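Per your request, structure below.
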């Protein structure tokens, strides 16, 4: 009887162990650690008021080289801790970014953002500014500010969380102005898509549909859904921008832009990021698919 009881206990233990191996596993990948081991960095210039996109030059008219890759001048990028979790501080003192070593496609990105106190030229009298750039490809310094890769921008700005900006020669079709009170309904997806950016008759900027940024000093939850050529900008749980047909134009040829690296901008304002996580999407979640129906 003792042997039988022992055998029964072993079988039960094995059965429970087997069951545990089939339990759902956390599929979010943490992108932020104290060493920024999954990121590289790029710094361009200390831009001044009145800059108009030109190549910066010294007093003799000689072109000034950007600071370049992985040179953390003045500790623009640093990692602190909050309750044992890493927090990325971007001082904003010099234009540039941290960017992921890996490219991503078909994913759900989450992060939290909060403003610091410091601002720098040329934005000392303007709103604090940063951004999450996605589908980023090629070399850094391809944009107006000579600081970032070609890509699409999820704007991070005071009072403008979730706006869209084209970066360099990118373009996209946008559905942003949704009926009031219908932010998360199928009816809200009936507005027409407008083409913006390179190769269109419109500029490369669009306002988000509503402001859902947290109060000053609090963390704002940011989510980015990307699947194939589609993306959604989500602020504190609210969809504020719907985009599709992500692309860029090169030598008059339109090329799909559906994967790339992630960039977090240094853009003349102190900003903090934490809980930066990403997971793969096998399909576009049904609750978001309705935003793309015509």
């Amino acid at each position: 009887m003792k042997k039988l009881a022992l055998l029964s206990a072993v079988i039960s233990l094995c059965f429970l162990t087997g069951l545990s191996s089939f339990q759902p596993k956390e599929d979010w990948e943490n992108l932020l650690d104290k060493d920024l081991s999954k990121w590289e960095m790029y710094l361009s210039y200390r831009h001044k008021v009145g800059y108009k996109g030109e190549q910066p030059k010294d007093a003799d008219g000689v072109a000034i080289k950007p600071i370049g890759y992985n040179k953390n001048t003045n500790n623009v990028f640093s990692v602190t801790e909050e309750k044992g979790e890493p927090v990325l501080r971007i001082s904003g003192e010099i234009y540039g970014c941290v960017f992921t070593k890996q490219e991503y496609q078909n994913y759900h990105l989450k992060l939290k953002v909060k403003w610091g106190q410091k601002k720098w030229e040329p934005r000392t009298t303007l709103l604090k500014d940063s951004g999450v750039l996605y589908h980023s490809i090629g070399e850094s310094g391809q944009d107006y500010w000579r600081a970032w890769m070609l890509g699409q921008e999820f704007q991070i700005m005071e009072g403008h969380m979730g706006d869209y900006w084209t970066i360099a020669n990118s373009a996209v079709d946008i559905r942003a102005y949704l009926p009031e009170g219908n932010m998360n309904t199928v009816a809200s997806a009936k507005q027409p898509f407008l083409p913006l950016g390179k190769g269109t008759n419109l500029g490369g900027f669009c306002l988000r549909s509503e402001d859902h940024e947290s109060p000053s000093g609090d963390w704002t939850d940011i989510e980015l859904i990307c699947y194939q050529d589609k993306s959604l900008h989500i602020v504190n749980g609210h969809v504020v921008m719907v985009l599709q047909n992500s692309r860029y134009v090169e030598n008059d040829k339109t090329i799909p832009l559906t994967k790339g690296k992630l960039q977090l901008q240094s853009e003349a304002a102190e900003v903090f990021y934490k809980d930066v996580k990403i997971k793969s999407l096998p399909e576009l979640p049904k609750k978001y698919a309705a935003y793309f129906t015509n």
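Residues 1-24, 178-189 have pLDDT under 50 and may be disordered.

Regards,
D.
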